[in-house]
Amino acid sequence: MTRNEGFAAACNQGAWIAKGEYLLFHNPDVCLDRGAVGHLTGVFQSRERVGAVSGRMRYPDGSFQATCRNFPTLANLSFSRGSVLSLFYGERARYTLPDYMETTEVSSVAGTVMMIHRDLFVAMNGFDERFFMYMEDTDLCMRLHRRGYTNFFAPEAGGIHFWGKGSRAGKVKRLWYHHVSVWKYSLKYFPKPISLIILPVILIVNFLLAALLPRPSEKRLGT
After folding, report:
1. CA neighbor of 115 nearest in space, from 13, 16, 23
2. Domain that holds residue 93
3. CATH no. for residue 38?
4. Of 36, 117, 142, 206, which is most buried with the most CB atoms under 10 A?
């Protein structure tokens, strides 16, 4: 790979040459706790048909950082951290999931920290490389769910995520990638009249407003 093909493509490139039983993806700005990898593999060893597993991320001050989500709908996306509506109305339809004290089934886990059995990842053809950045993890979890696998949150597998420190892209570029990826996800899973006509207009307006309006910190948004 001679140029930046995106997060999904880079992860796939590493996965195809990996030899281990499990694949562990995590952002470069994540520092895992001692024993976290063992807790993640333990989920696979104690349960059947496990899809992807994520751990409990913390901010540098020790507070909880959400890594699990419900599958996107038009309602919960409208009030997610990427929507300007969340600045005024908060999260009316839950997208990100709260903290749990024990290993819990969830819809989707973030690629911030994600473990998956290598053979399963290969069988799923890896991440969809049409997603340059963002939503590739949610898309994979949706495909796993449709194949009858269950995704899990394992709180014992902890780590610190220094949010945004691992990306060279600026705020506006990251915002653009996120909006484009949401649109691509909608093309795969939402009704076509909505994803082809209505949602692009909403996303463009939201992108322009989000780029211009001052935003609270990611931590204040609770996601």
Report:
1. 23
2. 7-167
3. 3.90.550.60
4. 36
C-alpha 80, offset from chain centre: 13
Do the domain assignments include residue 221? no
| CA dihedral sign of residues 80, 83, 87, 92 | negative
CA distance 196 to 190: 9
Q: Which two tokens stand for residue 219?
A: 């931590």
Q: Tell me the residue type at 9.
A: A
Inter-residue contact 59 to 30 (CB < 8 Å): no
The pLDDT averaged over each successive group of 10 residues in the chain (223 residues) is 82 95 95 97 97 97 93 75 55 77 97 97 97 95 98 97 66 86 91 82 80 60 41
Return the HEC string of 56-103.
EEECCCCCEECCEECCCCHHHHHCCCCCCHHHHHCCCCCCECCCCCCC
pLDDT at 42: 98
Amino acid at residue number 151 = N
Q: What is the pLDDT of residue 102?
A: 97
Query: Residues 196, 187: contact at Cβ < 8 Å?
Result: yes
**pLDDT of 171:** 77
| DSSP letter (8 states) at residue 102 | S
* Distance (Å, whole) CA 223 – CA 110: 11
Assess if residue 213 is contained within a domain.
no
**84: amino acid identity, one letter:** V
The C-alpha atoms of residue 143 and residue 152 are separated, in whole angstroms, by 15
**Cα angle for residues 167, 172, 174 (degrees, 5° grid):** 40
